[in-house]
Design a protein that fits this description.
CATH topology of the largest domain: Immunoglobulin-like
Shape: globular
CATH class of the largest domain: Mainly Beta
Distance between the termini: 67 Å
CATH architecture of the largest domain: Sandwich
GO molecular function: copper ion binding; oxidoreductase activity
GO cellular component, one term: periplasmic space
Protein name: Copper oxidase
Helix content: under 10%
Keywords: Metal-binding, Oxidoreductase, Signal
Subcellular location: Periplasm
Strand content: 25-35%
CATH superfamily of the largest domain: Cupredoxins -  blue copper proteins
């Protein structure tokens, strides 16, 4: 974690166009220092330096905001501003966010804490912050024009309330939100229970991230904010696989995953190799009697889901959105399907006119994952670029790996590398004799249906109509 002063001296992410929204040094001097985190790697959990103790969360490819204690109040400082976010190696996006990143830092507090959040607006337009899912005074809810005036550029406003219940929440604007959320303004919020809670179990690892989507043309860097459904980049914490860090656990660890959705569609989040229980939503912890085992949970727009499981199966397990287009990057929506079309001789002719032309789609799209040298416009994320121990991983977007190891140090989130499979435990080619196809049992001839003789008065087949009796109960 570095101070904002050092970050800006090093050439941080604020653009020149924000100069008009600058905040005076005198006004900033009395506020807590707005910290930023370097890079895009997952930062270690922030152990609470004061206040009531809790087990901190790990923000995937993100970090937790520090605070200062003043007269028993936890004070945070968020700066709304343009940022540059590396979404994948070699691809950066010009977004809006908080404290130098999108999403902004995770806020962690304890049930019963009085919290004071300063918001400094360095955007070119007015904004607010809505504290999604929180119970708080109406005037702190952050709806421009309804519960407060919008915060003009260049001003610092303050929100203050008590974190009244534990749970998984988020924050985002409710001012020009079509633009501001499409540009990446969002962040995670976790309220830990103040003591043992009958519906909240202790876990060994607690990981959180937000689902985001963007429409950024190949070769460009700014999202198209008018897009409603046809997004081409699907991300976790504004990162695209293979730029999403793995989730790491020690075999036998109790793991909690917290997911929030601020995209424009639902996401069926699917975990391989394990079953989980949905133990919480943005409404709070779920009663144990309402839970059942799942391997996929659908996270709708504006929802939070908290999933608990025991990481008892070793290996590298896929964890992803189960909408197939959401595990690819930089997709085009008007590409024709060319599967099965005979292109023989065509590519050579086209190459005489377009030397860099490449055949796409004759055998499906998996070949794209092997085209590491394929020329792309500058600042474009490849559709599929991950590489595993057995070759290309035909995935991108909303995808990462749960890595469960028997010898991973407790609480250590570092990547242990790829799983080394014991002999005989990997699918392999069959070299023996081809198995004979099982013959289907001979079918018995169908019994002849009894024939009803036609009525004497009808030259054709008789049609009989039976009307239901006694209402609709027999339908």
């Amino acid at each position: 974690m570095v101070s904002r002063r050092n970050f800006l001296a090093g050439g941080g992410a604020i653009t020149a166009g924000v100069a008009a929204a600058s905040v005076s040094r005198v006004a900033m001097a009395a506020l807590p220092e707005p910290a930023v985190a370097p890079g895009t790697a997952t930062q270690p959990p922030l152990a609470p330096p004061n206040g009531r103790p809790y087990r901190p969360v790990l923000t995937l490819n993100g970090w937790t905001a520090p605070w200062r204690m003043k007269d028993g109040v936890k004070e945070f400082h968020l700066v709304a501003e343009p940022v540059v976010r590396e979404m994948a190696p070699g691809f950066t996006a010009h977004l809006w966010g908080y404290n130098g990143q999108s999403p902004g830092p995770t806020i962690e507090v304890v049930e019963g804490d009085r919290v004071r959040i300063f918001l400094t607006n360095k955007l070119p337009e007015a904004t607010t912050i809505h504290w999604h899912g929180q119970r708080l005074p109406n005037g702190m809810d952050g709806i421009a024009g309804l519960t407060q005036p919008a915060v003009p550029p260049g001003q610092t406003w303050v929100y203050e309330f008590v974190a009244r219940r534990p749970g998984t929440f988020m924050y985002h604007p409710h001012a020009d939100e079509m633009v501001q959320m499409a540009m990446g303004m969002m962040g995670f919020w976790v309220t830990h229970p103040k003591g043992r809670h009958p519906w909240i179990q202790e876990v060994d690892r607690d990981v959180c991230f937000l689902l985001n989507s963007y429409d950024i043309d190949p070769g460009s860097a700014t999202p198209k904010v008018m897009t409603m459904l046809d997004f081409n980049l699907w991300s976790w914490n504004s990162r695209l696989y293979p730029g999403i860090d793995p989730i790491v656990a020690r075999q036998g660890d109790k793991v909690r995953l917290r997911v929030g959705n601020l995209t424009m569609t639902n996401h069926p989040i699917h975990l391989h190799g394990h079953e989980f229980f949905v133990t919480g939503t943005d409404g709070g912890p779920t009663p144990p009697a309402s839970r059942w085992p799942e391997v996929t949970v659908d996270v709708a727009v504006g929802q939070m889901r908290q999933m608990d499981f025991v990481a008892d199966e070793v290996g590298d397990w896929a964890f992803h959105c189960h909408k197939s287009h959401h595990t690819m990057n930089a997709m085009g929506h008007n590409v024709p399907t060319m599967i099965g079309v005979d292109h023989r001789g065509l590519v050579d002719k086209i190459n005489r006119l377009v030397p860099d032309y490449m055949l796409m789609g004759e055998r499906g799209m998996a070949d794209m994952s092997e085209m590491a040298g394929m020329p792309l416009p500058a600042n474009t994320a490849p559709m599929m670029a991950g590489t595993g121990p057995f070759g290309p991983i035909d995935m991108g977007g909303m995808f990462t790996v749960l890595k469960v190891r028997p010898d991973q140090p407790p609480g250590d989130p570092r990547d242990p590398g790829w799983w080394k499979h014991p002999p005989g435990t990997v699918a392999r080619p069959w070299t023996g004799a081809a198995p004979e196809a099982a013959a289907a049992p001979a079918a018995s001839p169908p019994a002849a249906a009894p024939q009803t003789p036609p009525a004497a008065s009808s030259p054709g087949v008789e049609v009989r109509v039976r009307k239901p009796q006694g209402g609709h109960g027999g339908h």
